[in-house]
């Protein structure tokens, strides 16, 4: 090492290079971390969308059905009650056999029936009940294909030789191909998915019931947690004497906000179901549990929003003779409202996505009917996702993902509303 | 029915508002200036008297009526039914009740159920009729009495505000009641569990197989309730989750706080927060359907034996879920480190990474530890991901490729589905819930204390 400048020596340059390499490495770690998180997010949303997109569509087949008066209405009475009892499944089978006369053995005929949905005969019934005048005609009816046939057209199911190992035999696949060649098969947007309740058959199952259940439950949640949350926040910020008692309440609220959601489910089970004897699976109980869970979020958001209103406004109102309550009601609350509403929407969106506590209070039942009231048994969107995810039918994978897409759409909409509300109305003092 | 009654009461209250405010105006001779309180307050005062006592009565009826009805029905049951074991008797009563409400029961009701349901129905009808008369009478009496009090000097505002204050106080007590409810219900049910299974066996037993209880008379004796494998499984999944979330979360926080351009930060930070907003059931679906098979096939290509519901899949995805909990809190504490500390270090010739590692991070350490503890508590209490992607069998293993079970999974499997509520099996869920509550509570308290103390340090 020469006597020259130590900072220009070879050793110093080496050291500097090393330090700069470390710097770049460190920076790369940070970028990798962010990239990893982003990639996972994209992968997650992408895989859900990719799997869920076909779930919004369903293949149908156009069948020529002879509405044989001998089968539907042998007495010729045209009595709707009598018509509803008729053997529509038989009509459907006849129609399919006319289409494929080569299916003769029992087994072949059974396979033939299975290419259309188990609810296809109900379509014929609906048509007959709606227009009894067409009895005796030969009509074209579009019925849903079965879930396996639908998957076959979507390219997600390969037929097997005998139909025993796979879910679709090559014979069935041949029939489906010839139906398609005749132009009878259509891929249609599946509106039933948005209207129907749950079903064991993927092509008949829908999220309508779960969506209504979610709506009813969230209505209860909002109705209970918003007024109570705002009132509690107002008391703690504006009226409560500062001291041990308020500290205790505050610690309490902060801890409640971090209690695992499943514990609220246990609370609901022990208190609402077993002690008060409220009905299982009812939106009313779900709403109660979720509102206890959302309450801390709303209180915390409301408190910070109320605290952000400058004291000068309170003093001015007090100065012109308003009472403490009038100050809060006429001045503080209106100014704090955007922040309170933002917090409420965020709390509601969290409640919408919550599943675990609802499992505890029996909202996981298999419920076919769309709920009609606050005490009728129902499921919710995330619970429906959970139920379908457990289902062995292949076609439910697409349905589950489609339900998730709907759920995420609601969540995005709510969060966007919160962001807009905040940027539009929130004032900085 | 009750809805109609409440709406009637609200209508009466509206009428009371009208009565009160108009009478106040009339008493003041048309000009409100001589009144102590504005006419609105007089109106609200009368309306309050019209609605609140009657609504309180309604709530009391809703809470107590079922119990009173039960007592009456029990009094007229046959001796044979009364001698049924308590849980069968409860089933009998709930059957009778549901028939009375017009529901279709799951099995055809016996004659005695039908008689009991008939009795329920008549009791309910009489009770509700009585309630209606009483509530409407109370409401009308309240309206009349309050209206007669309306005078120029009535301090209506003060009275209304006093009631409003007590409503506010009641609302702030809900949080305390919730905590008390959680603690009481968990402690009470767990206490019943520990009267069946010893405390020591639960905390230190090495075998967990609550599903073995086949016959009702051997409930407590056959199932094994040693929770150590469940705790170990929870620990394993949590460790895996933190192994993902801690480095990714902290490094993203460092990058966002120290390196990224403001524009990039404004895009990335909300996107990270999206990760926290995705429902956990979605993560569970993703873990079970996409990640677990991926890990399995990758492991098999290496010649490893991977369970289809491996702890690794559940843990990794749970780690992704809690990244934002780590990153946003850490980001906050890193940005809270005073500028002067950084400037000092940079001025001495340290590179940015050296400044971060040797100055910023040590200063922010308490806050980062707090955020990690909060994330751990989040991971322990997380339910849906593990329910969908981790297993049910309680394996005592540290191998992340095997299936393990967690506390939350066990709570869900023990309680989902209709069961008698008195078996050790269902009560075990509450004991697990109590442990979960205590552990997460301690973590939260410690974390919040650390974070708060740290904030004070730099404020």
Question: How would you describe this protein?
Answer:
- The complex is a heterodimer of chains A (429) and B (459).
- Chain A is mainly alpha-helical and 429 residues long.
- Chain A has helices at residues 10-52, 69-72, 80-84, 88-99, 106-113, 120-130, 147-153, 170-181, 192-195, 208-239, 244-258, 261-275, 283-307, 311-319, 324-353, 356-360, 381-389, 395-425, and strands at residues 57-66, 138-144, 185-189.
- A 3-stranded antiparallel β-sheet of chain A has the order 2-1-3.
- In chain A, 45% of the residues are buried.
- Chain B contains 17 helices and 2 strands.
- With 459 residues, chain B is mainly alpha-helical.
- The two termini of chain B are 57 Å apart.
- Chain B has helices at residues 2-27, 39-75, 79-82, 86-100, 111-149, 156-196, 199-204, 219-222, 228-259, 262-277, 280-301, 311-336, 339-347, 352-381, 384-389, 407-415, 424-458, and strands at 208-209, 224-225.
- Chain B has 2 domains: 2-154, no CATH class; 222-458, MetI-like fold, CATH 1.10.3720.10.
- In chain B, strands 1-2 form a two-stranded antiparallel ribbon.
- Classes of the chains: A mainly alpha (429), B mainly alpha (459).
- The interface between A and B is large, with 87 and 90 residues.
């Amino acid at each position: 090492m020469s006597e020259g400048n130590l900072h220009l020596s070879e050793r110093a340059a080496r050291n500097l290079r090393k330090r700069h390499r470390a710097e770049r490495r460190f920076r790369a770690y940070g970028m990798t971390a962010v990239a990893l998180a982003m990639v996972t997010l994209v992968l997650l949303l992408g895989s859900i969308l990719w799997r869920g997109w076909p779930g919004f569509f369903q293949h149908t087949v156009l069948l020529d059905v002879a509405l044989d008066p001998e089968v539907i209405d042998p007495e010729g009475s045209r009595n709707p009650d009598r018509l509803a009892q008729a053997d529509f499944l038989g009509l459907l089978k006849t129609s399919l056999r006319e289409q494929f006369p080569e299916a003769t053995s029992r087994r072949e005929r059974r396979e033939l029936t299975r290419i259309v949905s188990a609810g296809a005969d109900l379509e014929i019934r609906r048509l007959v009940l709606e227009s009894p005048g067409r009895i005796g005609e030969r009509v074209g009816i579009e019925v849903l294909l079965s879930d396996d046939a639908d998957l076959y057209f979507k390219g997600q199911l390969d037929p097997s030789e005998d139909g025993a190992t796979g879910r679709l035999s090559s014979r069935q696949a041949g029939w489906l191909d010839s139906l398609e060649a005749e132009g009878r098969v259509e891929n249609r947007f599946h509106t039933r998915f948005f209207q129907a309740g749950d079903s064991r058959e993927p092509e008949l199952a829908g999220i309508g019931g779960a969506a209504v259940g979610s709506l009813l439950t969230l209505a209860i949640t909002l109705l209970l947690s918003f007024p109570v949350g705002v009132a509690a926040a107002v008391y703690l910020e504006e009226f409560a004497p500062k001291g041990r008692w308020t500290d205790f309440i505050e610690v309490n609220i902060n801890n409640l906000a971090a209690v695992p959601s499943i514990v609220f489910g246990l609370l609901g089970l022990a208190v609402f179901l077993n002690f008060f004897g409220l009905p299982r699976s009812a939106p009313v109980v779900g709403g109660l549990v979720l509102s206890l869970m959302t309450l801390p979020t709303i209180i915390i958001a409301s408190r910070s929003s109320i605290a952000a209103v400058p004291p000068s406004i309170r003093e001015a109102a007090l100065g012109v003779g308003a009472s403490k309550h009038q100050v809060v009601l006429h001045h503080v609350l209106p100014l704090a409202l955007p922040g309170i509403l933002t917090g409420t929407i965020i709390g509601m969106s969290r409640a919408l996505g919550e599943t675990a506590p609802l499992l505890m209070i029996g909202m996981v039942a298999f419920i076919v009917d769309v709920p009609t009231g606050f005490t009728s048994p129902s499921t919710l969107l995330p619970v429906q996702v959970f139920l379908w995810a457990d289902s062995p039918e292949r076609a439910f994978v697409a349905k589950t993902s489609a339900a998730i897409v709907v759920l995420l759409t609601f969540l995005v909409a709510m969060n966007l509303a919160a962001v807009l509300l905040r940027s539009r109305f929130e004032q900085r003092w | 029915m009750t809805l109609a009654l409440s709406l009637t009461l609200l209508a009466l209250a509206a009428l009371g508002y009208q009565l009160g405010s108009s009478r106040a105006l009339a008493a003041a001779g048309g000009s409100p200036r001589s009144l102590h309180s504005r006419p609105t307050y007089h109106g609200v005062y009368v309306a309050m008297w019209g609605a609140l006592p009657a609504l309180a009565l309604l709530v009391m009826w809703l809470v107590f009526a079922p119990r009173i009805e039960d007592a009456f029905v029990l009094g007229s049951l046959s001796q044979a039914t009364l001698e049924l074991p308590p849980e069968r008797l409860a089933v009998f009563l709930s059957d009778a009740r549901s028939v009375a409400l017009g529901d279709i029961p799951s099995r055809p009701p016996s004659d005695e159920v039908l008689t009991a349901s008939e009795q329920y129905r008549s009791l309910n009808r009489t009770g509700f009729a009585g309630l209606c008369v009483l509530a409407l009478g109370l409401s009308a009496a309240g309206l009349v009495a309050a209206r007669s009090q309306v005078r120029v000097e009535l301090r209506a505002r003060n009275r209304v505000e006093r009631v409003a204050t007590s409503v506010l106080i009641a609302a702030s007590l809900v949080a305390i009641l919730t905590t008390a409810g959680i603690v009481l219900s968990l402690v009470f049910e767990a206490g019943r569990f520990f009267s069946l299974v010893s405390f020591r066996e639960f905390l230190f037993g090495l075998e967990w197989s609550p599903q073995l209880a086949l016959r009702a008379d051997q409930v407590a004796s056959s199932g094994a309730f040693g929770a150590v494998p469940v705790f170990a499984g929870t620990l394993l999944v949590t460790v895996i989750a933190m192994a993902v979330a801690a480095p990714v979360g902290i490094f993203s926080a460092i990058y966002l706080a120290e390196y990224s351009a403001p524009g990039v930060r404004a895009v990335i930070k909300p996107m990270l927060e999206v990760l926290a907003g995705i429902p956990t059931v979605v993560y569970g679906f993703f873990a079970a359907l996409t990640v677990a098979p991926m890990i399995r096939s990758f492991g098999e290509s290496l010649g490893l034996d991977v369970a289809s519901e491996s702890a690794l899949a559940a843990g990794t995805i749970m780690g992704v879920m809690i990244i934002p909990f780590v990153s946003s809190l850490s980001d906050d504490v890193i940005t809270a480190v005073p500028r002067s500390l950084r400037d000092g270090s940079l001025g001495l010739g340290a590179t940015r990474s050296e400044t971060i590692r040797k100055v910023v991070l040590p200063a922010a350490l308490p806050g980062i530890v707090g955020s990690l503890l909060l994330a751990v508590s989040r991971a322990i209490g997380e339910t849906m991901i593990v329910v969908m992607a981790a297993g049910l069998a309680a394996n005592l293993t540290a191998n992340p490729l095997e299936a393990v079970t967690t506390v939350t999974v066990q709570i869900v499997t023990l309680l989902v589905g209709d069961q008698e509520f008195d078996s050790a099996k269902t009560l075990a869920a509450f004991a697990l819930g109590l442990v979960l509550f205590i552990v997460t509570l301690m973590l939260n308290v410690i974390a919040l204390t650390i974070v708060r103390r740290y904030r004070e340090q730099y404020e």
